[in-house]
Recover the amino acids of this structure.
């Protein structure tokens, strides 16, 4: 079967293709709801949801296979801005955004919302400082920019190094997430689920590279946003909180604040349960004082600057037809991301209100323990140790500090808490899977492309023919994927920690070499190398130092509240200083490089790196 | 005007636009969240203002900013004749 993936007719047909797809997905959802009425088991519905969506992604992936360099690396530079926006949104929103974010807000309250601000505002940096210029440059990968702008194989190699460190940290977290979801839906051990998840991920990217990943990511975005929004609308409607709760949940926040005083949220629990936490943080109240405020803004800073340095996001803007489209595409990306992020606090709020408000039939706090224990969702999540109830004061009534849970279950359990049908839970599982898979695909591709294009083709064997290069890219994809799954099955870090580290690594090594490459003509090769290695080294050292205060790294206390989630602040500062000092101590770049920078700064004209077929 | 001077002026405008957007970005990313303690007592349609800004306010500003930026930068490019040719 041969299909046209580029050209006018394909582009014009895109809205129709994805319109039919969305309709088909909704139809499938309705069909499942009907099957549930006729008594299909919850397990079966979960399996069908995952199997159906995985089959579609694999179908797109196989259909869009390619052997052309432009198509494999940059999807033929033909992706329209709106669709690239959707693909970027899916690429961006990981398992952490989908599964963990609302739960984090539920559990940690206001301080956690730094992630929401940080994971959206970074796109301002992407649009104003980077994406349009990198698109004009015409690079295939992020190290391609470093290698061409600064010249020299060593600079390129440093770029590859930072990219791999950051992306690999990130991808293990995503494979862990796919493994968790697959394991629960198919009732298989986590270690097997990890490999199953990887198999699905590779099906989407192996054959068609960036082109296949682009079109599956659009499909995955549609699944994940539908899966996130439907439960919110449904729940809100059912509880009479309005049809569009995102714009009117202010009173619900106020009600929670009122209940917090009555229920004594903040009283530390009398017991501890391993791996679980009781709700002690206030929902909307800042902790108070300058240090928490400082920690809030430094976390925002790390997530934002990290956004603008993550190669798998930047490379999405290489695929648009023009520089102008790249700029518009950043705006669309953020709009699509916004739809989920402005819903996350709403979900956390509604879900918390369901549990706390004694006027709602679903409330559990203040109810008798026997009654609560018999609820099916309490029983189900309790059985797998993600939730626990301890009657510490033995009064037979559930107090707020006697209820323990793992925050990651909030999004997955909310439909059950609110008493929605199981079909919604199946939908949410499919959404979480789509979120984790799409991000993992983008990350794996970023790494495999950098290694095959920059390390193999540009550094090791510049004479390699196209076939061989693309074959190398695919083999590398397999190897990196397997390595990621191998590390993921060891369960070394939590999902969120690994994600924050990836951002910090990326910003420590890449932010200033990329930005100054466009905005500072004087920036030269030794400066860029010093910036990349110095930044990455300083960040890494600081991470090790705050994690091991007893060891020899020479740091007993974190500096002004900069803990391990915020080590990028140290790395990026070091990177800036190294880069400026070394650049000024060495000679300015030659005429040709300066002319190149002038060319990058205007949209018209040919790309800097000539495109080849 | 010579082409070199044109280019310099184009870049100056581009840079000013970038700086302008980054100032707004700085205010909504850092400044208002650093002042969360002061915003907390203010009630905004039911939300405490600090919560609202982190949950929605800043995000809406960012989205609007990006569409505006794309439009403004394109206008600058057109004015100085360096926009891409429409196909």
């Amino acid at each position: 079967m041969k299909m046209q993936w580029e050209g006018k007719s394909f582009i014009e047909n895109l809205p129709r293709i994805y319109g039919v797809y969305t309709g088909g997905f909704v139809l499938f959802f309705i069909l499942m709801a009907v099957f549930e009425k006729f008594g299909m088991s919850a397990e079966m519905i979960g399996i069908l949801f995952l199997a159906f969506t995985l089959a579609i992604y694999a179908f797109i992936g196989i259909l869009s296979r390619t052997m052309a360099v432009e198509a494999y690396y940059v999807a033929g530079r033909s992706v329209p801005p709106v669709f690239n926006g959707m693909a970027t949104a899916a690429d961006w929103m990981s398992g952490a955004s989908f599964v963990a974010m609302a739960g984090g807000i539920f559990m940690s309250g206001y301080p956690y919302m730094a992630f929401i601000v940080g994971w959206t505002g970074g796109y301002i940096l992407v649009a104003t400082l980077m994406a349009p210029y990198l698109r004009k440059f015409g690079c295939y990968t992020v190290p391609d920019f470093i290698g061409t702008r600064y010249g020299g194989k060593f600079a390129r190699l440093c770029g590859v190094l930072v990219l791999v460190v950051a992306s690999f940290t990130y991808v293990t977290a995503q494979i862990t997430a796919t493994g968790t979801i697959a394991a629960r839906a198919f009732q298989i051990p986590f270690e097997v689920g990890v490999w199953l998840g990887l198999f699905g991920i590779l099906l989407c990217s192996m054959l068609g590279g960036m082109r296949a990943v682009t079109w599956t990511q659009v499909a995955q975005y549609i699944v994940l946003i539908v899966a996130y929004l439907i439960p919110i609308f449904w729940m809100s409607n059912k509880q009479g909180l309005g049809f569009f709760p995102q714009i009117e949940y202010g009173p619900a926040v106020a009600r929670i604040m009122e209940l917090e005083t009555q229920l004594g949220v903040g009283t530390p629990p009398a017991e501890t349960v391993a791996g679980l936490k009781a709700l002690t943080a206030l929902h909307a109240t800042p902790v108070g004082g300058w240090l928490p405020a400082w920690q809030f803004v430094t976390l925002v800073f790390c997530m934002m600057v990290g956004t603008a340095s993550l190669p798998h996001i930047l490379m999405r803007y290489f695929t648009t037809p023009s520089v102008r489209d790249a700029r518009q595409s950043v705006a669309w990306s953020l709009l699509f991301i916004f739809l989920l992020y402005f819903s996350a606090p709403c979900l956390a709020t509604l879900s918390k209100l369901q549990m706390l408000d004694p006027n709602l039939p679903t409330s559990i706090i203040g109810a008798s323990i026997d009654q609560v224990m018999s609820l099916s969702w309490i029983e189900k999540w309790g059985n797998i140790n993600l939730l626990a109830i301890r009657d510490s004061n033995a009064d037979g009534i559930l107090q707020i500090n006697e209820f323990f849970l793992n925050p990651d279950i909030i999004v997955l359990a909310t439909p059950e808490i609110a008493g929605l049908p199981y079909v919604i839970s199946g939908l949410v599982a499919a959404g979480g899977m789509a979120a984790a898979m799409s991000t993992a695909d983008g990350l794996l591709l970023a790494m495999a492309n950098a290694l095959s294009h920059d390390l193999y083709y540009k550094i090791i064997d510049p004479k390699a023919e196209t076939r061989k290069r693309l074959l190398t890219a695919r083999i590398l994809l397999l190897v990196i994927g397997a390595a990621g799954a191998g590390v993921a099955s060891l369960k070394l870090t939590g999902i969120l920690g690994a994600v924050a580290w990836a951002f910090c690594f990326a910003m420590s090594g890449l932010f200033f070499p990329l930005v100054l490459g466009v905005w500072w003509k004087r920036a030269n090769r030794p400066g860029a190398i010093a910036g990349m290695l110095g930044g990455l080294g300083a960040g890494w050292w600081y991470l090790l130092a705050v994690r091991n205060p007893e060891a020899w790294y020479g740091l007993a206390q974190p500096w002004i509240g900069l803990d391990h989630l915020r080590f990028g602040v140290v790395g990026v500062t070091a990177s800036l200083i190294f880069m400026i000092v070394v650049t000024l101590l060495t000679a300015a770049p030659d005429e040709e490089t300066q002319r190149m920078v002038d060319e990058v700064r205007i949209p018209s004209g040919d790309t800097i790196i000539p495109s080849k077929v | 005007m010579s082409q070199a001077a044109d280019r310099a002026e184009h870049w100056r405008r581009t840079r000013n636009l970038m700086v302008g957007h980054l100032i707004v970005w700085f205010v909504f990313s850092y400044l208002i969240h650093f002042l969360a303690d002061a915003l907390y007592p203010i009630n905004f349609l039911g939300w405490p203002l600090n919560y609202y800004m982190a949950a929605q306010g800043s995000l809406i500003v960012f989205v609007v900013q990006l569409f505006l930026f794309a439009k403004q930068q394109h206008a600058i490019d057109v004015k100085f004749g360096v926009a891409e040719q429409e196909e």
